[in-house]
Design brief:
The N terminus is likely disordered. The chain has two domains: 84 residues, Orthogonal Bundle (Multidrug-efflux Transporter Regulator, Chain: A, Domain 2); 34 residues. The protein is mainly alpha-helical. It starts with a helix and ends with a helix. Helix 2 crosses helix 4. GO terms for molecular function: DNA binding; DNA-binding transcription factor activity.
Amino acid sequence: MQALYICWLRGFKLYIGEASKRSGASPKAIRLYESLGLLSNIKRNGSYRIYDESDVEFVRLIKEAQMLGLSLSDLKELVVGRNELNWNAVIEILHKKEDEAEKEIACLTIQMKKIEKYRLNIQKCLDCH
């Protein structure tokens, strides 16, 4: 049933409000993505933008990439066509993000050990008084 619904949706053209609801991005964010060139060749009906399901999916992808730490400028450099990214370059960036996250985790682990040490030392001092 869901596959039938998705096929049915692919033929649909959406105004920005509906594209916003389906993607989880605000209309302002969608306009920003378009102005930056992340979304391109958006059809218009007069002054209204008309989005399709592939645009909605690409907006979701942009939001997910941002949650992984990619900036909009990073993403702009990865766009190679309408709703298409250079996936090999994406893999490279994700490897870098993994390395950065591992380093940050190591630093935070050290910080937590120091915090625990100071907390215990302070607690000892307070217990002595």
